[in-house]
Amino acid sequence: MDIDILKAKRKSLRAAFTVCCNGISNRIETETFGNNEVNTLYKQLLDKFSRLETTQEEISDLLLISDELKNTYQEDFSKAEEYRDKFCQICSLLEASQ
């Protein structure tokens, strides 16, 4: 698949993931959750993150096999790590909110 198409897809997935994270963060500040609601929010977050992660892996693979794009791999990898960290942070907040 073309890397530009994957990057456009990733951009949309990142936006959806960020909206989900922000929504959960805002709700955690103002509400108390039961186990069912925490599980629901976690599954929503996991769904968005797993689709983002799959697309990111496809992009990383293409960057590594292309000699002209290898230089952008480190920057791309660092940005992907920020989203992984955000996922872990929100998961921790959900666990603590139980």
Explain what this protein looks like in three dimensions.
One of its GO terms (molecular function) is RNA-directed DNA polymerase activity. With 98 residues, the chain is an all-alpha fold. It has three helices and no strands. The radius of gyration is 16 Å and the shape is elongated.
Could you name the key traits of this structure?
98 residues; mainly alpha
Fold blueprint:
Elements: H1 3-30, H2 35-65, H3 70-96
Helix pairs in contact: 1-2, 1-3, 2-3
The largest sheet, given as strand count, sense and whether it forms a barrel, is: none
* Helical run tally: 3
The helicity comes to over 70%
Beta-strand percentage range: under 5%
- The first-to-last residue Cα distance is 42 Å
What characteristic shape results from the CA principal axes?
elongated
- Would you report the number of β strands? 0
- Rounded mean pLDDT is 91
Low-pLDDT windows of residues: none
Helix and strand sequence: HHH
The whole-angstrom Rg is 16 Å
Q: Which structural class best describes the helix and strand composition?
A: mainly alpha
